[in-house]
Amino acid sequence: MRAARRSPRLAALARGAVAAAIATAAIAASAPAAAWASPIEIGPKVVNGRPALPDEVTRLAYVRAGGYACGGTLAGPQAVITAGHCVTTPGGGVMSPDVIRVGLTPSSGARPPADLVVTRVDRHPLYDVPADTYSHDIAVLTLAAPVTSVDPMPVASPTAGQQLLAAGSTVFSAGFGVTRAWGASTSTIALLAELTAVPNRVCRGEGTYQIGRVTFRMPADTGADIDTRTAVCAIGAVPDTDLIIDTCQGDSGGPLFSSRDGRQVLLGVVSLGIGCAGFDEDGDALDPKSPGIYTRATAAEFRDWLVAAGVTVEPEPAPGTPALSATGGAGSITVKVAPGDAASVSRYTVTATAPGAPAGTCPVEGASGTCTITGLSAATTYSVAAVAIGPGGESAPATATARTASAPSRPTITGTAQRANGLTRVFVTPGRSPVISARTTVTCSSRLSAVRGAVARGHVDLRLKSNVAYSCRATTTNAVGSTTSEPLRVAPVGTSGASPAAFLTRLP
């Protein structure tokens, strides 16, 4: 059905405040409500698609629900996923399983007879009956017996779904719906649509998106109702033409899936749209051209509900080994972590250990970040390990080593020289400061005053008074502490300009 694949003149009804204005009513509006059980073909069908290849759509289901025609996907041994509006009565209730039958598509792609018995219907409890927010449009049909002829198409994990539905990704849909929005009958063979996932912002009515020669835009009033946490938009275009590839009436409930290396995973469910492939049911071109709206089956909030209904959902992968860097500090180590792959990471546990020294830990919340382990021994080499934790479990640990800092070694004054401008240059070898940067200064003191300066490039220029004896010391300081050189005396120097270096002596 792509019941809520609505045309502009039905927009008000689809979003109406009246509770009875459910998604299916948008398509059935031309017939009395009492006729809902008659064989009306409603919902999308692929427009400008291609016939499916052998074995390409063997999990595609044909659903007859109270006279309506929809699509579905075998997603568990006895579970078929379809759209919530496909199993909703005109009064907003859930259809009885007695009025629903399912057919499973053979490898030829022919439309199958609906002869599989349904024993239970689970429509998502948060399905929006008036269909004015396009949310939670998903349902699961439980079959009377397991299907053994083909393996189910699993629903991708939430993490994989985020990746496979990223903007610009190629995805597929299939169905038996109509091949144009006006005056067309449903297809007798499965038609496949190659589509492109649209950015969430465009799905919400913010901006445009170009595919080939066609520019797509969701009307702002429609986009405002779309929650892209549980819905995704997709559309396609025939290369080098203005033709749009889209699902249409009769395709509702069918799959949105990814196919890589011969493996298919379910990503979404055909849900809603404005017209089909850029046209309304009268054959008039629509402006703007808008993408189709699909329920995001991989949404994290659907996961437990789908599993409880018998659907096969891929497990979340464990995170990969994280990227790790560690830097020693003053009795501490600062660690930076980042994900090692695309798997979901919720937090990290970081530990630092060294033989005979106190160990420490620190947490990092979120996909990446930094933490500092404190209370460690100075001048000690620690082994640092970080483990990423996500919904799929724990990663293998990443390891690194880092040495905590200690106070710098003692600096040395190696000599002095008189400069032509009256300054005295003091030459210094600064104290070594492992890990932490340090600053070295020289202080020359007399009985009456002191002169101080910072060492740069191994020396410092000080203005020392003539005929005054000075005692000079160099001090190197880092975050851990300071060390000071042995004192050196610069003997009194007369105005003759003799070099103070000739009078440099070590104090006892």
Can you put this structure into words, describing what you see?
With 508 residues, this protein is mainly beta. It is 7% helix and 37% strand. It is built from six helices and 34 strands. The protein has helices at residues 11-14, 23-28, 158-164, 200-203, 220-223, 300-308; strands at residues 4-6, 50-51, 60-65, 68-76, 79-82, 100-104, 116-123, 139-143, 170-175, 191-197, 209-211, 214-216, 231-237, 244-245, 255-260, 263-274, 292-296, 323-329, 332-338, 347-353, 360-365, 369-373, 381-390, 393-394, 398-403, 412-418, 424-429, 439-445, 450-454, 459-462, 470-477, 482-484, 488-490, 504-506. The strands form seven sheets. A six-stranded antiparallel β-barrel has the order 9-10-13-17-16-15. A hairpin with a 6-residue loop joins strand 13 and strand 14. The chain is elongated. The termini are far apart.
TL;DR of this structure?
With 508 residues, this protein is mainly beta. It has helices at 11-14, 23-28, 158-164, 200-203, 220-223, 300-308; strands spanning 4-6, 50-51, 60-65, 68-76, 79-82, 100-104, 116-123, 139-143, 170-175, 191-197, 209-211, 214-216, 231-237, 244-245, 255-260, 263-274, 292-296, 323-329, 332-338, 347-353, 360-365, 369-373, 381-390, 393-394, 398-403, 412-418, 424-429, 439-445, 450-454, 459-462, 470-477, 482-484, 488-490, 504-506.
